[in-house]
Design goal:
It is a single chain. The protein is of the alpha/beta class. Helix content is 40%, strand content 20%. It has twelve helices and ten strands. Strands 1, 2, 3, 4, 5, 6, 7, 8, 9 and 10 form a ten-stranded mixed beta sheet that branches. Strand 1, helix 2 and strand 2 form a beta-alpha-beta unit. The chain is globular, with a radius of gyration of 26 Å. It starts with a helix and ends with a helix.
């Protein structure tokens, strides 16, 4: 009798141990990320000029990525803007970038190297064209820029692309009718203040801190760009369907606008990579961009407009598979 009980106790003990091992294994499987290791490596992000929105956004995004992707080293590389950014990513000189939809469309239309490999990760926020003049300037519309010294942005910038198109739509030949100055947001405000420019174009989120700062120390105005200019841009068929009429709200730049809204032209910014980028890395990168919206937006206000509901619309680029996975994972 006693040996039988002893055998029964041992059997129950073994069964209990086996059950405990199963439970422990399941708990371990649940807690540890087997098969889902965090992406690792080095990423290069092409941004923009030092005082521009792209660069400031990139600096804060790098901080957010350091928390979410701790095994990924982020290298920020300044640039002249959208056109140079796209060329770098297409050539493999950068892994991710921000660029305007019109610049992306032009790169694809011109069949530049690597254009077919470009992929979108997110639609971010809109850039607003801001044509800035001294408050006492006689310029009242883009047509009045004839004969003036105009900052139209550096060669590789998105500002240059849209400024030249707007000038042509206004009946001005940018190569003959104005004195073209390749000044970007890093130098144009100071040159306007020093009377080295009569006007300058900028395309960026609202408000752009550099223009905000300028308006607080120097009297400026924002020139309205009416809806008929957008109609003329669309009529050219020159990859210009990505422009839309917009209005800068009256409080975008209080000192410059005197409480009056200013009509203008807007174009979307896209987060861009290529089909070479690993889907897991792209999924994690896209997740951080969306998740960090409010944190980054406290400093770079345009980032507040990043919206999960519209982020998937990356036309003219197809959505990267990694980004698609992220949007599917958060779909209600």
């Amino acid at each position: 009798m006693l040996p039988a009980l002893s055998r029964l106790s041992r059997r129950r003990a073994l069964q209990g141990s086996a059950a405990a091992l199963v439970v422990f294994g399941l708990l371990l499987w649940w807690l540890l990320p087997f098969g889902k290791s965090s992406p690792s490596g080095t990423l290069t992000i092409s941004t923009g000029v030092q005082s521009g929105v792209y660069q400031r956004y990139g600096v804060l995004l790098k901080q957010a990525l350091a928390q979410d992707l701790p095994d990924v080293e982020i290298d920020l590389r300044t640039s002249e803007g959208s056109q140079q950014n796209i060329a770098r990513v297409a050539a493999g000189e950068a892994d991710f970038t921000i660029a305007t939809a019109d610049a992306v469309a032009k790169y694809k239309r011109d069949r530049k190297p690597g254009a077919d490999r470009l992929r979108g990760c997110a639609r971010l926020y809109d850039d607003y064209v801001q044509l800035v003049v001294p408050r006492d300037s006689p310029v009242r519309s883009a047509r009045d820029l004839r004969g003036k010294r105009v900052g139209i942005g550096p060669e590789g910038s998105g500002v240059r692309l849209i400024a030249e198109r707007l000038l042509k739509a206004s009946g001005i030949d940018p190569t003959r009718d104005i004195t073209r100055v390749p000044a970007g947001i890093d130098t144009a405000p100071g040159r306007l203040e020093a009377d080295e420019l009569d006007a300058f174009f900028w395309s960026g989120g609202l408000p752009t801190s550099t223009i905000q700062d300028l308006s607080e120390r120097f009297q400026i105005r924002l020139i309205p760009l009416e809806a008929d200019l957008v109609d003329k841009l669309h009529a050219t068929g020159d990859a210009t369907s990505y422009y839309r009429s917009a209005v800068m709200p009256p409080d975008a730049y209080l000192q410059a606008q005197s409480g009056v809204p200013v009509p203008t032209v807007a174009v979307a910014n896209l987060l861009v990579t290529t089909d070479r980028m690993d889907p897991a890395m792209t999924e994690g990168f896209t997740r951080t961009v969306i998740k960090s919206r409010d944190r980054i937006g406290n400093t770079v206000h345009p980032a507040q407009l990043v919206d999960l509901r519209t982020a998937v619309y990356t036309d003219p680029l197809p959505l990267h598979e990694g980004a698609r996975r992220y949007y599917r994972s958060v779909k209600p």
